[in-house]
Amino acid sequence: MRHRPPRLLPAQALTVLLGGLLAISLPASGGADSAPALLQRAQALRSENTALAARTHNALLRLYALDSRLAQARARLDGLTAQAATVRRERTLTAKRLGIARRDVATAQAQLAARLRDLYEQGQTDPLEILLGARSLDEALAGIDDLNRSARLDRRLIRETRAARAHQQAVALALARRSATLERLRRDAAAAASSIATTRAQHAAYLTSLRAKERLNGARISSLEGAAAAAQAKAATLVTAAPAAPAAPPATGGARTMQVLATGYALGGSTATGLSVGWGVVAVDPSVIPLGTRMSIPGYGEGVAADVGSGISGASIDLWFPSDSDARAWGRRPVTITLH
Questions:
Q1: Whole-angstrom distance between the N-terminal and C-terminal Cα of the chain?
Q2: Under a CB-based contact definition with an 8 Å cutoff, are residues 303 and 238 in contact?
Q3: At a CB cut-off of 8 Å and minimum separation 6, what does 130 contact?
Q4: Nearest to 262 by CA among 301, 322, 306, 317
Q5: CB 293 within 8 A of CB 339
Q6: What are the contacts of 184-193 at 24+ separation with CB within 8 A?
Q7: Do residues 87 and 178 lie in contact, with contact meaning Cβ atoms separated by under 8 Å?
Q8: Measuring CA to CA, which residue among 40, 42, 167, 154 is closest to residue 108?
Q9: pLDDT digits (tens, 9 = 90+) for 152-179
Q10: Spatial distance between the Cα atoms of 118 and 112, rounded to a whole number of angstroms
Q11: Nearest one of 150, 169, 172, 151 to 161, comparing CA atoms
Q12: Distance between CA 160 and CA 163 in Å, rounded?
């Protein structure tokens, strides 16, 4: 956007400005609220935000790693909890089976006792009595076989029921040990998951604080840049001029003319005299044109020598323009200026 040049600076205002410039004996560095100082503070905050961005990135990667570890720890805890629940169900079933085995043993023992009692009551517990009481040899052998077969069946029943009870007792003991191991592992997994969750919460809070700091710095940067722009605009109002005058005012009194080479520029910042750059601020070689000298520049307007530059030597001047397009339009041209 092209800036419209301001109107010509009144002679009274130029006189006041000239007096202020001549009173400056050393280059000023600008106050704490000057545009360069505000922009410097904004740049420092940008550098701080760059460092904060790197720390935020590292904290985010650490948070992702903690999320992965926490998911693994919770999956392990869930697996151990499920195994412990399975073992509890197996222990309950084994306890029932052990109770059945114990009842079977008791039943077998009761049946054996009843059979022995019946044999005693019938008088058929002694093989000799069976032989003497038999009416034939076949009857005697059959009676002895029945007695032996009954004894074998009783022993087998007792042996099997006791083996079943012993097996269920061993299974119950193994399940109890496994349950204790799983419970210990489950407690360890729960503690590990809780520790990781606590660490993750701390890193999340740290990441939130970094992001909040970045946002705060961003708001301060915007505020400082706005203040710097306002300071530059305010400084620009100290020196005003109109668009190109048709011709330089005729020299009167002590005025003199000089042929110079004038170059347009559109940089920001402060001048060597401490004045912010603006329309009408002219950079000169102080050995040719003293600082504070007022001048009329054909095609530009009124100006004042308020800045110096390493590239300005002899009969050369630099004219400030509000935009690069205005400065390029002026370019570099010879003009005859009138010094007051």
A1: 34
A2: no
A3: 124, 140, 143, 144, 147
A4: 317
A5: yes
A6: 185/80, 186/77, 186/80, 186/81, 186/84, 189/73, 189/76, 189/77, 189/80, 190/77, 192/73, 193/70, 193/73, 193/74, 193/77
A7: yes
A8: 154
A9: 777 777 788 788 888 888 888 898 998 8
A10: 10
A11: 169
A12: 5
How many CB atoms within 10 Å of residue 324? Answer: 12
- Residue 208 and residue 110: Cα distance in Å, rounded? 77
Residue type (1 letter), 235: A
Element (H, E) at 250: none
| Helices (H), ranges, the chain | 11-22, 35-122, 127-133, 137-236, 324-330
Question: Which pairs with CB-CB distance under 8 Å and at least 24 residues apart come from 136-141?
Answer: none
Q: What is the pTM of this model?
A: 0.45
Asked if 59 and 207 count as a contact pair (C-beta separation under 8 A), the reply is yes
Q: Which amino acid is it at 75?
A: A
Name residue 256's beta-bridge partners. 339
**Cα–Cα dist 262/240, whole Å:** 18
Give the model confidence (pLDDT) of 189-221 as tens digits. 999 999 999 999 998 999 999 999 999 999 999
d(CA 85, CA 94) in angstroms, rounded, equals 14
Please state the length of the chain.
340
Helix axes 35-122, 137-236, angle to 10 degrees: 170
Task: Note the pLDDT tens digit of each residue in 27-72.
Answer: 333 344 567 788 888 899 999 999 999 999 999 898 889 999 999 9
Rounded (5°) CA angle 171-173-178? 90
The 10s digit of each residue's pLDDT in 247-294 is 444 444 467 899 999 999 888 777 776 677 788 889 999 999 998 899
